[in-house]
Each structure stands twice: as C-alpha cells, then as structure tokens.
Amino acid sequence: VLRQNFPATLNLGVGSTGPLIQLAILREHLPEQRPRNVIWIYFEGNDHTGLLKERKIPAAMAYLEPGYRQGIRAVQAELDRVRLDYVTRQLAIEDDAPWFFRFAKRRILNVLLLVRLRRFLGILPPEPIDRLLFERVLLEAKKTVLSWGGRLHFVYLPDNGRYGVWSGL
Q1: Can you tell me whether residue 42 is helix, strand or coil?
Q2: Alpha-carbon distance 95 to 72, whole Å?
C-alpha cells in the first residue's frame, strides 16, 4: 500500500532482527540512497529480546561507533550465495526442522505455558529491556540519517498483551 502511493519506497525490514542489526542494515544500505524519510518500526513484542541477543555479537556492537560500516554491499552477491547454500542445507536435513516449524513450536509452547496470560497477571516478570543500549542504537540511527539531511521517524508498535487483548496464538 505504501509503495502504491510512494513508488520509490525501499523496504529493508528483515524478520528476526533486533535494533542493532536494524542499525547495521540502515548503515550498510541507506547512505548511498540518501532517502528523505526513514521509518523505523519497533515492535515491543520481540525487538527488545532481539537487542538482548545482539548485544553479545561484537560485529553488531561495532555499529554503535559513529559511521562504522563493513561495506557489505560490495560483497552482497557472495552473502546471497552463502545464505542460499545455508537454507538449502537446512531444508535438506530431515532432523532439523525449517525455521517456521521451530517458530510454530515456540509459539505453541508459549500458549501451553500461558506465557502471555501469566505476564499480564504479573505472575511472570516482564522481559528485561536494555534502555540505555536501545537509546544509543536510536541515537546512532538518527545521526546517520541526519548526515545526509534525512529524517528518522520512529513508529512504536506495542505488544497486544500490554492492553489486555488476547489474540490466541
């Protein structure tokens, strides 16, 4: 729908990435494009847990350094080949279910354990959030976008459990 009204829209959203990897994607792919507007969508339901995992990856943490880039665009064809080889191997291994089965299994387990209900009732503590690290990530993203005269727009999508809405799975 967005692209119908704005044909030059570039979607760099990648599933299962958290804020640090999203900063890396922004730094690696947008400076040459120099878009006037960059929309950063943050989903409360899982982006903070992604950040907690990503902060353990030195290559991801390096993007907190002003202007840091690896030059990934220059080796994109090789990265695509490696990714395709990996996916092909994973699909060929019968004992190792594809990611969507693992995802579904995790969701079913959460339902069986009543994770959302227990969190809503306060029986489970909320997942930790590294607010200072998240603030640094957003600040670097903003500085990067401002460097070419663009504007960063932050869209916050709350988890439906925050408002007591039960959506089933």
Answers
A1: strand
A2: 32
